[in-house]
Design a protein that fits this description.
globular, 5 helices, single chain, 0% strand, mainly alpha, 144 residues
Length: 144
């Protein structure tokens, strides 16, 4: 058990990021699938992108708070916390555009199954989001 705990502590940030990323993916996919199975038609390119944006907003909001607290353990408050949020959402806009582009090419142009393409997109976006969060959003000051 001690070895497992030591391994966790050694790789805590990445392990927590993967857990939060997994939960963020559940939020994103849950919202996406819930909407395409009830309200929206993924065969309609405009509706496909609307659903993608709605699932993105829900997932990013969850991800910001979870990453801030559990992954990067940011202590920023007030205006510094607001700057983190702006950088976080800005970085996520970049990966949203990546997400939308891959969905458009995969589903609209190549006619692949939207649910399979969405799963692939989640993997790509999760990796990109970690890199952006680590390097741009929750970067530690030299004194930390």
């Amino acid at each position: 058990m001690k070895k497992l705990k030591d391994l966790y502590l050694k790789h805590k940030e990445i392990i927590n990021y993967l857990i939060v990323g997994g939960l963020t993916t559940v939020v994103s996919l849950g919202v996406y699938y819930g909407l395409v199975l009830t309200i929206f038609d993924p065969e309609n390119p405009v509706q496909l992108q609307i659903v993608n944006i709605i699932s993105w907003i829900c997932a990013v909001t969850f991800a910001f708070f979870a990453n801030k607290k559990y992954v990067f353990e940011s202590k920023a408050k007030g205006s510094e916390s607001m700057k983190e949020a702006v950088r976080f959402y800005g970085a996520r806009v970049g990966t949203l555009l990546m997400d939308m582009g891959i969905m458009f090419v995969g589903v609209t142009c190549l006619h692949f199954n939207d649910k399979i393409v969405k799963l692939f997109v989640q993997v790509v976006v999760t990796v990109a989001n970690y890199v952006f969060s680590k390097l741009l959003v929750f970067r530690k000051k030299k004194s930390e």
